[in-house]
Amino acid sequence: MMIRVRRALLSVSDKTGLEAFAQGLTQLQVELLASGGTAELLKKNGLNVTEISEYTGQPELLGGRVKTLHPKIHAGILARRDDPGHLEELKRQRIEPIDLVVVNLYPFEAKVSQKTPTTEAMEWVDIGGETLIRAAAKNFSAVGVLVDPGDYPRILDELRTSKGLSEETSRSLAEKAFQHVTRYNAMIARWFSKEPLPELLMVAEPKRLTLRYGENPHQAGALYGSAAPVQLQGKELSFVNILDADAAMKCAFEFERPTAVIIKHTSPCGVASGKDLNEAFRRAYAADPKSAFGGIIGLNEMVDGPTAALIAQHFFEVVVAPDFSEDALETLKGKTNLRLLHAPSQLFDSVTELRTTSFGVLAQTPSHKVVAPEDLHVVTERRPTPEQMKDLLFAWKVVKHVKSNAIVLAKDECTVSISGGQVSRVDATEIAVRKAGEHARGSVLASDAFFPFKDNVLIAAQGGVAAIIEPGGSLRDEEVIVAADEYGIAMVFTRIREFKH
Fold first, then answer.
1. Residue among 419, 497, 485 at smallest CA distance from 458
2. What is the DSSP letter of 59?
């Protein structure tokens, strides 16, 4: 059954494309009803519009707070066209049916922050608009509802070619309308909440990207959220590309100095800081060139031409950075499959981290704890040198981004070897020391959780590790400290764990 549109109500905050859409409706002999600023704009463009207050016989009240909340409006929307009683009642009350509702809501998200005073914030909470949307979406078999200006052209085209809206179209518009008000209410509820983990978890985010596939080609994948990275070139993004790019930038933005991070399977394989980005990338790549093949690069500064030239010499899947210079884009454009993502630091200021399980959704606050030199507790007779202290803090920033059990060896603000995701911490330590080989000598070691036994210290000592940073807190801490003293290793405790499961 087609919905024939004879009368449309327009009341929008976002007036993008409104004039052309309203002109198209007028050409189709659709009567236009509009409120406030929407009516004023359309009249200025020479369109014949009936104002809501004129139609209802009721002036706007409370400074415009009450405009469309009127029985003549809502009965015209909610009346079932297949119910003779409803139609008879409309006729008796001299109410005309409304067949199309074009509404979007006050821009609460754009206008309100947590710092906005309550009185001002509440003025951006839409009441009438949401009521119109819900009423039209409820009666979608008889009424079309438009909340997205991007849908105007296709709806006009369908009205022109089909002389109405199909039920399939109207149903899809109703789905989008309920999604629109759901997200709107979720934003308002989040504004009210002062708790990082509220009693009701609300995830109502728009789809930003349809991805090539999920973790594997037979799985579908999509990215939802308030924002998304801007892709400057390269193949379509996959689910894994997004995961790896996120991991790369979260690690890169831990550092103030120019830093390069190379990621494989969401875990760093090479991380280095330098006097500039070129040096940082060169050192990060040299830390583990075998694992870097086909990896994802995260950089905490704008990519310049010389750094891009180095990147172009190797095979990578993605480069993600706060910006790219014109020289860098020119250098990398020849690598047509390489995905370049522009992602400013504010994208990574997440409020809540979510993970799904068969039991439900897990939520936690992000780990933004910064460990400074004054937070460290030297527990051994030997104290770290200033250079070692700098490397210990560097390694600690890296290890929090490695899957636990995690061990990182570093020297001169560059990773020497990384081992993560092991079911035994001693295995992780053995792997890290073995991978480092001779490069372990004089390096520092970071562990994301405490050493439960002294055997980890023994392995580190055999490799030539000079200093260790770990949380402490084991029942055998004293035994571990004695072992470090025995081998002349400096050890500091952070008193904070950084598991990453």
1. 485
2. -
Task: For residue 405, say if its preceding peptide bond is cis, omega within 30 degrees of 0.
Answer: yes
**Euclidean distance between CA atoms 490 and 431, whole angstroms:** 21
- pTM of the predicted structure, to 2 decimals: 0.83
| Helix, strand, coil tally for the chain in percent (to 5) | 40, 20, 40
Query: Would you call 72 helix, strand, or coil by DSSP?
Result: helix
How many angstroms from the chain centroid is the CA of residue 489?
Answer: 42
Q: Which two tokens stand for residue 491?
A: 């050890």
Q: Is 273 exposed, middle or buried (0-12, 13-18, 19+ CB in 10 A)?
A: buried
- Rounded CA-CA distance 77/38 in Å is 19
For 178-226, write each residue's pLDDT tens digit.
999 998 898 888 888 877 788 888 788 888 899 999 999 999 999 988 7
Pairing of strands 259-264, 267-273: antiparallel
Length of the chain: 501
Q: Report the 3 state secondary structure along 321-336.
A: ECCECHHHHHHHCCCC
- In angstroms, the CA 271 to CA 411 distance is 11
By C-alpha distance, which of 254, 206, 446, 225 is closest to 353?
Answer: 225
Q: Which residues are catalytic?
A: 138, 265
